[in-house]
Amino acid sequence: IGRSLEKHKGCDILDLNPGAGLWSSKLHDFLKPRNHVLLESDPKLFRPYLQPLVDQPGSTYRFVEGDPTLYSTFDKLIDDGYFPDQTRIDPGDSRAQEPNNTLLVTGTLMWNPKLPGMGFDSVARQIHGAFARMAWRNEGFHAMGPARMLFWILSEDIKRALPRGVHGTGKNTAVFMKTTDMVEVVSPGHPDPRAWFRSARYEIESLIQAMKRAKEAGIELPAHRRENIHDFADDVARMTKGTGNIGFAELNEYLRKQEESGKSTEGITLGQHRQLWIREKAFKANPPPPPQRTSKRGAPRVSDEQRNLNKVRASVTRHSNVRQKIDQAVDLGERIYQQECLILSTPDGARKEKETLKLKKLQTEFHEAWENIDKNIRTLVFGELDDRLMLRSPGPRLQWDERPFEPLVLQPDEIYPPVHASLVDNTPRPRPADESIEDFEYFTDFTTALVGPTDSIIDVMDNVQHGASELTEQVPALRDPKKGGRLDLSQLRVRNLTPEMIQGLCKAYREWPFRNPDAATSNYFRSRASTPKVKGIKLSKF
Questions:
Q1: Rounded to whole angstroms, how far apart are CA atoms 378 and 371?
Q2: Is 178 helix (H, G, I), strand (E, B) or coil?
Q3: Are 448 and 525 a contacting pair, CB within 8 Å?
Q4: What pairs with residue 493 in β-bridges?
Q5: For 65, phi and psi rounded to 5 degrees?
Q6: Three-state SS for 96?
Q7: Which residues contact 156 (CB under 8 A, 6 or more apart)?
Q8: Which of 443, 522, 537, 538 has the fewest CB atoms inside 10 Å of its own CB, making it the most exposed?
Q9: Distance, CA of 398 to CA of 510 (rounded, Å)
């Protein structure tokens, strides 16, 4: 990110919880700021590390004791003159949403032990989201204009803000996508707490696309910041002529060979498959002696190790067969989406009718493939299909899949205490001129109503309020193939909605004459979601 930091040289730095100051000093030496405020919440522990920075001849460091979890702390810093070259800006000013490149906010949003927040299991998750929203209100350190933020944070605390697959999306994902351009600069690598969010084939496909974008921008991942999955991605890119589009069976066989050659696939391959490969390799290298006894029919008995290995192999084979069936259904689901896009872009007439008949045939084939999968795991088809469409359909989907480069891999001995941590680059997106703070607050509240990520937008809107599904007709983006829309909205699930789609639904609902009168406030859905329930009966709020 060095090149992108050039524009901040000579700026002011607000450094939250700088700790021992290692990151702070490196960033300071590069940017040579005119003012570097070290806001430390535990001065007793860290002042001995930070004071020498302050005491250097000609130092621009300033040590301040304060709590970054209290938003009033930032107002006090500004009022007390710690940023003399900065000027507060009125939120209603036409320049209020222009980026303030003369201020860079950085620091550590990690506490040991983990610090809970209000309504959150982590205060880091709470204030990270608050800092993003405050940029649109010009509050806190954004009072002088929206400022870029570089934060060290636990990887698990950004898994909803920056999910790596559809299963990781939540109601806050859309808010972050709307307000913040977020890039993970440093990652703990594999195995990662978020590794379960996406199948290996889609994780590698996404990685290949990111490495391609980085290469085009002249960015190369240093050798000591790579890991095995990057080598695997290079191989798969060659195998697929750069697309990364590879089937489960082919990729699984490739990964098996890699594991047998001594290259670990931990965190990438499904655990049961990897354990089988490891056990088979050990069995071949050191087979147990054959049992002395024979069976009743005179055949030699199978050793216990061989018997156990056969059971695991049979289980893995069953799982592989199921995955093949899921792949076949997902292939059909993707073809249905492509056919819908073709129909949506075709003028009315004979050709459109012909293509519609093809669509119905594909839908029948998909239903048959769906019926051929065990009822208990059929929903996996939609997870796999949505992940595939996230990668291959147009329109803003996951910020992770649009990353400009692969994160640098953080080595275990580079952080203390040893945790899975990430460095996240947050650049506020300007609030649209035609969107007020009240509009944004209503949008944030409305995302709370869109529960059931695997449910269709039709079903969810009717859950918002009976009959509200008719409002989907007022949101063109829902059926715009260039924006990821669908012809059949029953196949457009909530987790596939883009911020533009949600904004359109939110606006349509606010203007709906049949809207619940109580929904006029920007806290209606959040308060409704938090209302306690007893034995399935919703209690009234006084």
A1: 8
A2: helix
A3: yes
A4: 456
A5: -85, 130
A6: coil
A7: 122, 193, 194, 420
A8: 537
A9: 27
**461-470: pLDDT as tens digits:** 999 999 999 9
Provide the β-strand partners of residue 474.
none
For 471, the enclosing helix (H) or strand (E) is: none
Kindly report each contact of residues 509-516 with a partner whose C-beta sits within 8 Å and lies 24 or more positions away, as own/partner.
509/446, 509/464, 509/465, 509/468, 509/471, 510/442, 512/468, 512/471, 514/465, 514/467, 515/465, 516/465
User: What is the torsional sign of CA 496, 500, 503, 507?
Assistant: negative
Which residue type, as a one-letter code, is found at position 53?
Answer: L
Return the DSSP state at 406.
Answer: P
Which tens digits make up the pLDDT trace of 316-367?
999 999 999 999 999 999 999 999 999 998 999 999 999 999 999 999 999 9
Q: Kindly provide the b/e burial profile for residues 197-216, where b requires at least 16 CB atoms within 10 angstroms of the residue's own CB.
A: bbbbbbbbbbbbbbbeebee
Q: Where are the domains of the chain?
A: 9-188+410-428, 437-538
Kindly tell me if the per-residue pLDDT of 531 is higher than 60.
Answer: no
Token couple for 266: 């931990």
Q: Other C-beta atoms within 10 Å of 266: how many? A: 12
Answer for the pair 176, 157: CB distance below 8 angstroms, yes or no. no
Count CB atoms within 10 A of the CB of residue 21.
20
Give the start-end residues of each E strand in 275-420: 408-409
Residue 292, SS3 per DSSP: coil
Contact 144, 88 (CB under 8 A): yes
What is the Cα–Cα distance from 487 to 500, expressed in whole angstroms? 17
> 174: which 2 tokens?
């859309």
Query: Which region among 63-72, 349-358, 393-402 has the lowest average model confidence (pLDDT)?
Result: 393-402
R_g over Cα of the chain: 27
Superfamily (CATH) of domain 9-188+410-428: Vaccinia Virus protein VP39 (3.40.50.150)
Helix (H) or strand (E) holding 7: none
pLDDT at 191 over 80: no
